[in-house]
């Protein structure tokens, strides 16, 4: 097919040549003389000095490269992982991206970084010295590991003084005037609200992320483990007036989750329950995803922000650590918050942004112990900034910025710092048991274990995320297929972009991934615990950011290669396909695979709790029910919590059976089906009894119910002889 001789190609001819190159002549962009050339279709041969070659469209090869990489990553999915073939497919896609970049067909310089000039900063010395004074007074009053009205008041005043020291001057009159004008226009327009397409997309993504965080929250996961019992006992203490700074149960825990959960119990009326823990962590997980939007927008553009929000919101990894009801998601949440204000502060040269970064660092240090590496990461970031901008005269701002960030973090960390001064051993106990020989000798040379752990951790997004069923689907990649490929594309294109732009944030994000995994990597005494999704959870922040950058870079290149409306539609279609695949796999991983494995592995203390509730409803006494202790069986504290008696431990051991004989009340004993010895002892003590097997949803969840009727003249007799 050819154009009529001497005719000028139209825009439609150009678009058709790009979309259907095999059926239309290729229309070239005007040359230097303003002439528009047409050449034969791509299936035709043309002569060149080096012979004949075929004209092709790079966009199709780019899409094929993506498709090949998706195949490569899918080959690493369990149960049949094929590493060698996967590497061939994945490297083929990377090679094409590199070829496209070297031949200038693939663009990575899409997010220019504007390092603003230092500006006049707000610093009020009087408030600064007041901050120090009240902080010293608060620290002196943070005694005996307790929050009190006095030390909290002094601490809050110190924080308020710190904010006042750096709070920027705001033209309130102009802002109120602008707001008043908007309100006036709103009423004059007849209460008409206009919602842009972008706003609609953001709302839809927010609804989708909220769905993933809260859908079937009461069921997925469905059972508590012993760690939950420890947390709920601490929450119970808070609700009953014991306000600790550091909670020493179970080798010691920071305080943030205990007070957050207590707040959830008060607001939602959920009491001492699994749901109380889940609500707090799910909300923090949602906040993590929201902050990923602003981080992506800060690093790239609003599309990067949207992709980061979406990928983190639907991802299997962040969803599981948000749903389990333990402190894991606090690591990623406060890391995202701190990094946002850190990046923004150094770009805009505003100390107040860095004060906010310090605030979230200080709070994060009281959330989950792996967060302790984040101050070191911030220091590395400042060093990278120094290296890249040492000739620009910004060193003074960077130096002061580091000092003020650290100072703000210290003020927020003050209560726990005082506890460290008083009880350093308790604070470091958990870390020492993992990184040193405090609990057991290292199973090999430390450096070899470290290197092995390091390698396993950094390939975790593509390969295996560990074997801990409580917070993962064992022995599978930490990322779904689509996100893993986008993360790899983001790594490759990020390095290429750094070669072009020297944007200091790129090496920072790449280095942040293994650095934030160090709490897991340093599990030298227990290398089998590495990798894991909990102690590496801070690393999901840079990982999903890099994946979002990879997705946006890829789609923008599609739009550049196929210009106009067609490019927009093609990139949109491709994005929709990728997102739908990701949604489908992540939904299956969270609500089916993880839920199934967790249900099979966990013990059904909720079933035992319901049986005790029924017994109490029939006979009216929760103190005459018992769970007979058996090795590696249920945590009897969880039974009490599920039954509605949060501080009651229902355990009894066989040697205490005779003590129950003189009790005239109705009695119930719950036994493990394998505990035949205890069952025979009860049968001898109580020949007149009722006995049955409770049928769990799977066979290994069955247990024995052994009921003894009340004495005939017992005041507790309820009149019913058997259930």
Mean pLDDT: 90
Structural class by secondary-structure content: mainly alpha
Count of discrete structural domains:
5
How large a portion of the residues is in β-strands, by DSSP E? Answer: 5-15%
Over all CA atoms, what is the radius of gyration? 31 Å
Low-confidence stretches: 36-56, 715-723
For the biggest β-sheet, the strand order reads: 8-7-9-11-10
Q: How many β-strand runs?
A: 11
Specify the biggest β-sheet: 5 strands, mixed
Distance between the termini: 87 Å
Q: How many DSSP H or I helices?
A: 26
C-alpha geometry: globular
Helix content class: 55-70%
Protein model, in words:
This protein is mainly α. It folds into 5 domains: 11-56, no CATH class; 59-102; 133-167, no CATH class; 168-600, no CATH class; 605-708. 59% of the residues lie in helices and 5% in strands. The chain has 26 helices and 11 strands. It has helices at 11-19, 58-74, 83-102, 125-141, 149-166, 172-188, 197-214, 226-239, 256-268, 274-299, 302-314, 316-323, 328-348, 351-364, 374-389, 395-422, 424-435, 446-458, 481-501, 505-516, 518-521, 540-561, 565-601, 605-619, 636-643, 676-685; strands at 26-27, 38-39, 45-48, 51-54, 246-247, 253-254, 625-628, 651-652, 667-672, 690-694, 703-708. A 5-stranded mixed beta sheet has the order 8-7-9-11-10, with helices on both faces. Strands 1-2 form a two-stranded antiparallel ribbon. Helix 5 (149-166) packs antiparallel against helix 16 (395-422). The longest helix has 37 residues, at 565-601. The protein starts with 10 loop residues before the first helix and ends in a 15-residue tail after the last strand. The model is unreliable at 36-56 and 715-723 (pLDDT under 50).
């Amino acid at each position: 097919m050819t154009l009529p001789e001497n005719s000028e190609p139209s825009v439609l001819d150009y678009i058709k040549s790009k979309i259907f190159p095999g059926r239309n002549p290729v229309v070239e962009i005007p040359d230097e003389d303003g002439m528009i050339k047409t050449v034969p279709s791509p299936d035709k041969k043309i002569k060149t000095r080096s012979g004949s070659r075929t004209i092709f469209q790079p966009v199709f090869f780019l899409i094929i490269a993506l498709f090949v990489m998706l195949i490569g990553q899918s080959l690493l999915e369990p149960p049949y992982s094929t590493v060698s073939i996967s590497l061939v497919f994945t490297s083929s896609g990377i090679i094409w991206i590199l070829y496209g970049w070297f031949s200038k067909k693939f663009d990575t310089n899409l997010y220019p970084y504007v390092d603003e000039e230092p500006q006049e900063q707000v610093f009020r010395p009087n408030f600064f010295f007041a901050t120090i004074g009240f902080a010293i007074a608060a620290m002196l009053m943070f005694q005996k590991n307790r929050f009190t009205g006095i030390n909290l008041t002094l601490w809050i005043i110190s924080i308020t003084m710190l904010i006042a020291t750096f709070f920027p001057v705001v033209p309130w009159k102009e802002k109120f005037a602008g707001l008043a004008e908007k309100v006036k226009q709103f009423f004059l327009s007849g209460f008409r609200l206009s919602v842009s397409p972008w706003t609609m997309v953001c709302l839809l993504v927010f609804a989708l992320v909220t769905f993933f965080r809260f859908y079937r929250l009461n069921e997925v996961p469905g059972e508590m483990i012993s760690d939950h019992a420890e947390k709920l006992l601490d929450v119970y203490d808070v609700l009953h007036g014991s306000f600790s700074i550091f909670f020493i149960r179970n080798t010691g825990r920071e305080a943030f989750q205990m007070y957050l959960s207590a707040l959830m119990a008060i607001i939602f009326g959920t009491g001492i329950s699994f749901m109380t823990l889940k609500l707090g962590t799910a909300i923090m997980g949602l906040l993590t995803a929201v902050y990923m939007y602003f981080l992506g927008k800060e690093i790239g553009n609003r599309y990067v922000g949207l992709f980061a929000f979406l990928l983190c919101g639907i991802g299997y990894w962040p969803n599981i650590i948000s749903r389990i009801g333990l402190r894991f998601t606090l690591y990623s949440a406060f890391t995202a918050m701190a990094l946002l204000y850190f990046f923004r502060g150094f770009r805009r040269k505003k100390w107040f942004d860095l004060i906010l970064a310090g605030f979230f660092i200080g709070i994060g240090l009281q959330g989950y112990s792996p967060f302790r590496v984040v101050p070191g990461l911030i220091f590395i970031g400042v060093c990278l900034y120094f290296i890249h901008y040492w000739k620009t005269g910004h060193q003074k701002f960077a130096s002061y910025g580091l000092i003020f960030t650290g100072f703000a973090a210290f003020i927020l960390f003050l209560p726990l710092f005082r506890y460290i001064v008083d009880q350093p051993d308790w604070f470091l106990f958990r870390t020492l048991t993992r990184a040193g020989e405090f609990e057991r000798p290292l199973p090999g040379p430390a450096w070899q274990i470290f290197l092995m752990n390091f390698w396993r951790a950094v390939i975790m997004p593509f390969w295996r995320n560990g074997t801990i069923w409580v917070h993962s689907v064992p022995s599978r990649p930490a990322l779904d297929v689509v996100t893993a490929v986008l993360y790899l594309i983001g790594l490759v294109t990020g390095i290429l972009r750094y070669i072009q732009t020297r944007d200091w944030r790129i090496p920072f994000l790449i280095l942040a991934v293994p650095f934030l995994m160090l709490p897991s990597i340093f599990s030298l005494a227990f290398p089998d615990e590495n990798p894991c999704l909990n102690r590496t959870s801070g690393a999901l922040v840079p990982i999903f950011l890099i994946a979002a950058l990879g997705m946006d870079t890829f789609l923008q290149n599609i739009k550049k290669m196929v210009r106009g409306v067609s490019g927009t539609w093609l990139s949109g279609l491709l994005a929709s396909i990728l997102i739908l695949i990701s949604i489908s796999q992540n939904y299956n991983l969270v609500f089916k695979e993880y839920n199934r494995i967790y249900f099979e592995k966990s013990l059904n203390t909720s079933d035992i709790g319901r049986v005790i509730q029924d017994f109490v409803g029939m006979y009216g006494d929760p103190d005459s029910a018992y769970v007979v202790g058996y090795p590696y069986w249920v945590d009897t504290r969880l039974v009490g919590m599920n039954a509605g008696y949060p501080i009651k431990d229902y355990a009894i051991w066989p040697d205490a059976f005779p003590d129950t004989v003189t009790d005239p009340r109705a009695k119930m004993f719950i036994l493990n089906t394998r505990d035949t010895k205890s069952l025979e002892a009860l049968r001898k003590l109580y020949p007149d009894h009722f006995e049955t097997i409770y049928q769990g949803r799977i066979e290994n969840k069955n247990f024995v119910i052994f009921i003894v009727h009340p004495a005939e003249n017992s005041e507790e007799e309820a009149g019913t002889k058997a259930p």
